[in-house]
Fold this protein.
Amino acid sequence: MNATRRECLRFAGMGGATMAVSAAPASAADSDLLALFAKRQSIRSYKPDPVPDEHLTRILDAARRAPTSGNQQPWKFLVIRDKVKIERMRNRCLERAEASWKDLAAAERDSRRERMKTGMAGYFSAPVYIVVLTDSQSTYPTYNQHDGPLAAGYLCLAARALGYGTVYITDAIPEAVTREVLGIPERYQRVCITPLGVPESWPDPKPKKKLEELVAYESL
Amino acid sequence: MNATRRECLRFAGMGGATMAVSAAPASAADSDLLALFAKRQSIRSYKPDPVPDEHLTRILDAARRAPTSGNQQPWKFLVIRDKVKIERMRNRCLERAEASWKDLAAAERDSRRERMKTGMAGYFSAPVYIVVLTDSQSTYPTYNQHDGPLAAGYLCLAARALGYGTVYITDAIPEAVTREVLGIPERYQRVCITPLGVPESWPDPKPKKKLEELVAYESL
């Protein structure tokens, strides 16, 4: 048996129950949580209002409760509030994009520059940024590809529960920019970066596929 | 600009706000929900009680609200309740493990067989299984590696909100077994499979790292 196999390792640890079990919802509040899932949206413009430490801690404390292979908890949550670093990330995103457009016609470059500036002004308007990382030296690093997004997803949902917006960003703020500006060691893989703050506004809900399109019973 | 870049595509879509924004929690219930994150645990033994369709639908409806690149929603949730298929998956897991032990000493094989049988009896005691898949023909397939675990994490949390247990399984029920028994086409990548049901019991909480070990401020 492969020593890193998710789950297999834990057969010996079963049992040891302590809590009563019911088939019904644990509480009305737990049931209300289901409404929260639909309320989380990607937020691309923020108010400058600070996020109190107590709220930030509660959000991170929720994020680390995500499922994790063999309880390895391979995460690092890098919290950035330094305005200088935030501004530097924004500038580097713009510079890199500009460099990639050098072969385009001037009008096209101008158009992209304006769109990009507006977008980046929104992305970088939050008071806090959280870089979600996994540690390549974790116990079962091949499972970090699951554990990373799982924690980031919990983080976004927990933030929403406290009234904050987030957006799960990968390439729009390139990994190379965060590594360079924030000095992230090679050892850590970046899962995503998200702003955290009070939304400038809650956008209209995105159109979604029907549930029936996404669910299959017994066979595909 | 790379056409599949997450986020960049959406700069043009900003604005259009409709809902009021507050810095405080949306409601006391939302705030209470943070307690739920810590209550979700991996469950490895289930009661036979069925999961009503209404609950299953609510759980799947929550799962599909996960963050998704460019709103692509690349998911398929394959729901299995057929006892014949469930039993066949269990048997195939045991057969494959047995085959991989052929070079071991007899005593070691016997010991592993017993542990594996107990473990598999637990994993396959639930009334429902959900295979979380992503579609390689989605709009931005390179981002499925994020979208897949994100939806599976939402699913586990939503199930917990309604009093059900899950466990995010990858290799303990090999992808090859689910493909073979359930006839999953190559087009779909398996993220994980989870049982869904009322836990035989809620286990003692797992020991966790301190939050301070996982969080870094401004630099690593």
Observations:
- Chain A has seven helices and six strands.
- The helical segments of chain A are 28-39, 53-63, 83-100, 106-123, 144-161, 175-182, 211-214.
